[in-house]
Each structure stands twice: as structure tokens, then as C-alpha cells.
Amino acid sequence: MVVLDRATGFTALANGVAIADGSASEEIIALRDNVIRVRIVPNGTLPENASWAVLPDALRSHVNVKPESSTTSFGFRTAALDIEIDKSTLQLTVRDLSGKIVQQDALPARFEGTSFRVFKSMPLDEHYFGLGDKTGPLDRREEAFSLWNTDAYRFEESTDPIYKSIPFFMIYQAGIASGIFLDNTWRTSFDFGKEIPGIYSFGAVNGPLNYYILYGPSPKQVVETYAWLTGRPPLPPMWSFGYQQSRYTYTPQARVLEVAQRLRDDHIPADAIYLDIGFQEKNRPFTVDTKAFPDFSGMIAKLKAQNFHVVAITDLHIAKLSDQNYFPYDSGMAGDHFVKNPDGSVYTGVVWPGPSVFPDFTQQQTRAWWGTLYGNFHKLGIEGFWNDMNEPSIFKTPTHTMPLDVVHRIDESGFTQRTATHAEIHNVYGMENSRATFEGLRTLDPNLRPFVLTRATYPGGQRYAATWTGDNSSSWNHLRMTTFMLKNLGLSGFAFSGADVGGFAGTPSADLLTKWLEIAAFQPIDRDHTEAGTGDQEPWVGGPAQEAIRRRFIEERYRLMPFLYTLAEEASRTGLPMIRPLFFEYPNAAPDRHPIDIDNPASGEFLLGHDLLIAPSPYPDQTDSYTIEFPSADWYDYWTGEKVRNPGPPDPGPSPALPASAQVQLSIPVVPTLANLPVFVRAGSILPIAPLVESTNQIPQGPLSLRVYAGDDCNGSVYQDDGRTYAYKDGAYLRINFTCQIASDGFHLRAGPQEGTYPPWWKEIRIEIYGWTPSANTASLNGKPIQSTASPIDHGFAITIPARSESFDLQLR
């Protein structure tokens, strides 16, 4: 065992420090004022400066620092942080400039054989979030996890590991946030005080000790910084935010068309139909079963004419079919694109098609070859692709994946060309699969935005694909777990995520399917999916009464499409998630500034953007009343526009450290019913709402509605583009920012000038105002009286004005 616990040498660097401990060496440098990188090796020199996750510009980034030293320590200071290394123990302490400890080593770093472990102090009031969609509570405290991409069919709350390896977590203490990203592709593990009370730790079985410390101090800043480090998700096509219908498997062709027609006949808005492996000939990727689908191209054309976008599964296992005219295998063998056994032979494993071979995605030339396989499907008009089974999942092996000694060849920009075992590549394999798909589709049509859905991934995978939580179960507990999993996925860089609505394994009860469809209407990816052999799971299953409730919520999603798409565009610019924990926007919600999401009343709640609070029961199968806990004082009921009245919970007492507005704890009791889902709007929100359509391909008919909820910090925006191409990058987009203010001369709604050249679909703007009532019922636009007058609506009033591209100030009295 090697324990780094004494300094035998120290060198100040322009951007940090280099430390020696005998043959061991350590480098601590600042990439930015709020990003510190720590690398340690037990002997020799630091490994190559390469990463599958970190962007090249971030990897090369640096800032100059101010060296600092004393008789007991040395370190440096940035514009945001103080870095101190104890000379006698080499323990690292990171403080903000006020002296508050952000992170501190509890024990020296240890190496044992090829493995290593880092130990950090764990204050009693510190909480931990992230690591992707791991199961269990939202807060990782007192939990331990292994990161090893695993096909975890019917996973449970205690199942670990599962599909993804995201070795990034957020640390939150009294409203102050930081983060740690361990960039190591081998099997890693994280322990948040489960083994050693008062200490959290992380490590890997092999590979580099290479981690990044990200300082906020707000949760938003940590996530934005993580996006700077590992990348932001690209803006997907608008249709991917519509309702998506799937199952394993819609077959034959007539069944696919029947489901699509029923959606249109029942006027259930929908945008996507999925084809699982049953559409393929004998489950072979990139083929079509012409017996079950005799007119496949005609089917795709008919679905397109009905405004459906087809998403086809393309698993990465290629059927091993010599001399059978199977192009993916023949061309892959000819190009030497498959991973190999240690003896140089091509590795073979059994999956859905039977004996299969596997692309070596660590080679850029293999990824390019993989992308060409989509050419025929792309020409047919298939618009989305689904990369499943890419942990990789393999049947009939003790580990359910490749042997650890299978050989990959690394041929990648920024890396030294070399071979690597599967033990090193396993956790990035699924990400590189989705990367190959995304980049291949970009090559086939550089101006068309791809939609790729992946099951397995690694940090940086958000640059290539949306994701979902894998093979969940049709149970109330899995519906409950979904909220925790999606909130943590959002904190881990994946803004565009979802779960199999209704559950994949098993048949949901009618009430469970209804409630799941209600909640999923407010989540980024809304896909109803189930496994082979289960009962039907489409929105009409269970009878007209259930269908009417489900249709209502899907319709509401489409009315909210301008809001959803505006959030998606924000995520593509900033990395901020669409689904957010309450503490993400309201770190001062509790008097002691703990994250209120860990409180039982708020555990089932989530935010959609900054403005919408969705508050299902924390135990959705129970009919008992429950309490909705709000993170701030002023909210409106989304469905009625009525302001929420506080019945007066016990007052915990004011905190002198917080403003009075942050000390108000608002909560209300709710009796759950099947047909209702409590949704609330932040006072000060301005929501863009569209007339109802049945597909995002349709142009809404009527005005854009702006729902204005009077309150402090009143603002909102709307973003639009063509929803399909990259023309927005050349200015073909629309963005309008709005603010509102209650002043002595009345109510003002102000709009900035339209940004971008994209023309709006609306000719008028209907403005609905809640929480303020006019006295004279007069209106002026930019100081000039107008004839329009306000009409009363429930809990508010509305006025319609012509749309305009220049800024305006609408004044109401």
C-alpha cells in the first residue's frame, strides 16, 4: 500500500502546485478560478492528458494563481478559492475566500495495487446528489454505489449497479454547493459515510487518480461549470418533446398503423412511434422483417403523412453471419471494426440475434463506419434512433457483459494510439456507441438535428444523446423512484431524460398508468413503453374515463410546448436541467438552508424549469391526504390561476441570516384524486402557452398566450425556431424576453425586441394576468391609448394585442 502523507518536494506552477512524496507525485492546478484539477500517481510521471469526457478546450484551460505558503502548508489562491496542502499529511483543504471550507481531505489518498481511494470529511449537515440515475433516495448520504454499466432488468430500489456510470456528484451544505467529478473509466465506487461515519470516499480498481473540484457557490453554477467541463446537450428536434408511443414490440406492420390511427382518431396528441427489435429480420440490426412489414417504406411514408416521426432501435450487436449477404457484418469484418479477444480473434457473444460481434467504438474510423449503416433508414425517412443494450449487455456469460480482457484499440484525437482492455473501456462503450450514431447522422444530413436515445453512458454522453432510466417495472414504487432518478440525472448533465411511462416490466393497473401519464406530461421525455408479453399500455386502455384523463394531460403538455421548448433551448446553452430539485432554485427555502427536497412532504415534488412546481403525492399509491411544501412564499394554482393561500403551518421562527421573504414556509394539505395532479406556478412567472395541436408539425392556430402571474422578479421568455435544422445557429430563431411590474401608474408588461430572424407563428398575443385587477380598465401601448380592454377570466383578466417584433410596454390601469 502507498499512502501519500508527507511532502518531499514542492514546486510552484503558474497555475497551481506540483508535489512529490518519494516516488509519488501530485499535481493540483486551476483550470478556472472555480475549477481545480487533482492528479496523483503512486510512482513515475502523470499519465497522458486525455479524456473521453472532458472537452479539449476545458482540458487545456488554465488560470494563473497566487502561490501561498506557511510553515505548515503550501498552496495557492484563485479569484474564487484558497487551496491549502498540509506539509506533514498532504491533506488538501479547499476554502472560499471568506474562509469557509468547501472540501477537505479526511485521510491521505491511498493506493493498493492498481486501485486507489480518496477520503473527504463529511460534515453532519452536508448532502450529496448526482451520480446519474442511481436508485434509492434523492440524497446519496449514508449510501454507497458502484459504477459499472449493467443491464439491470426489473431493477429495484436497492439494485446497484445499473445502466449508467456518471462519476459526478454535487455537494450541498447550508445553501453552498460544489461538485466532484472523478474522470476514471474503470469500475469506480463512491461511499457517502456508509462504511466510515463522518467520511465520504471515492476510488477505482485501476486507472488514473484524476478528479475535478467544481465550486458554485450556487447549485446552478456547479451544473453550468460541469457543462463547461464535459459539454452541453445539443438542442434536439422539437418533436422529441411531444408524446411518444412505444412497446416491445409493435408488429406486424398493420399493428403499427393501427396504433397510429387510433391516436389520431381519438385526438390524442402524439409525435413519435417506436419500432423495437421485432421489426427486424431475426432481431438483426439494420434489417427489416419483410414478412411482418411487407411495405416498410410505405408504412414510414404513411406515418409521416400523419405527422408521426419514427424512432427505430439499432442495437450495437451485429449478427455474426458469414457469407449471408449481411452488410453490417461483412463491411465490419472487411474494415476490421470489431473488438477482439486477447489472441487477436474477433470476440463473439450471444445477444438477441444469436452469436454477435461488437464494434470497436474507441476507433474513430469504426465510429465513422457505424454511421454509414444508418444511410438506408435515413433515406426512408426514419428520424430517430434508439441505442439499447449498449452497456454492453451479453447473454450466457457470468458477468452479463464482455470479458474484462477483451481488447479495444484506441485511435482517437487527443489519445496516444494503444490497446486497452474492456475493463478500462466498459463504462464509456455505450457513450461512444451513441456518439457514433449522432455523428453518423450529422454526416448523412449536416443540417438536420438527430434524435438519439441511449441506455448506457458516461459523462460527456449528453453531447450525443438523450437517455432514459432503463427497464423499470409497472409498480407504484417505480413511479415514485422516477422523480428521484430524473432529478439526479438532471444534476448529472442529462437535461433530456425520461422513464418508461407506465413501467416496462409487467402490466400496470389502469390507475397507475393514468397517474404515470399525468406526471410524465411534465417531464422532458414522455415515452409510454412496455415489454413483450404484457398487456396493452396505450392511453385508451382501461376505458373512456381513464382515456379522457390521460388525454387531458397529454394535451396540456402540447399547450405548454412553447415553455418546454424554451427550457430545452436554455439547457442547450447552459447545461441547466429541465427537471430540477427544489433546492436547485431555492437554496434558502429552509431556515437552516438544508435542501427541502429531502423532507418527506417535498420528496415527491420537482420543478420544471424555474417556474413550475409539480407536486404529486410522495407515495402515489396511497389515498391519504398529504402536505405540499413550497420553497417560497408566493405561488399560484396552475389549473385555476388562483393564488395559493397559506393555512398557517407552525412557524419555525425567523432566521436573522435570511431575508424575511425567504423565512415564510408555505404549505397546504391536499387530498389526492386520480384525475388531478397539483401543479403550481411561481409568482412572477410569465408562461408562453400555445393553442392545442395534435403534433408539433402542425402550426398552432390562434394567438400566443402569455400567462402572467403577478409577483416579484417577474420575467419570462419564449424561444422558437424551425424545430428541425441548425438554421438557428445562423440567426434563424426567435427569442423574446418579457418582464412585468406593478407600479403606481398601473400594471406594466414589457417585451424586449425580437431576437433572431425566425417569423412567429402567432399574429396576436393574448395576455392573461393573475393576481392583479385593473381599476379603470384602460390600456396603452408604448404610451399611446389602445381600444383593447380587459375581459374577466377566472381569478384574473385577459387582453389581446397584435404581435410585434419591436419592444413594447403594455400599461394597464
Main attributes of the structure:
Immunoglobulin-like, 813 residues, alpha+beta, 18% helix, ten-stranded antiparallel β-sheet, 13 helices
Quick structural summary:
With 813 residues, the chain is α+β, with helices and mostly antiparallel strands.
Write a structural description:
- This protein has 813 residues and is of the alpha+beta class.
- It is 18% helix and 30% strand.
- The strands form 9 sheets. Strands 1, 6, 7, 8, 9, 10, 11, 13, 16 and 17 form a 10-stranded antiparallel beta sheet that branches. The chain has an 8-stranded antiparallel beta sheet with strand order 2-3-4-5-18-15-14-12.
- Helix 10 (510-520) runs parallel beside helix 11 (544-559).
- The radius of gyration is 27 Å and the shape is globular.
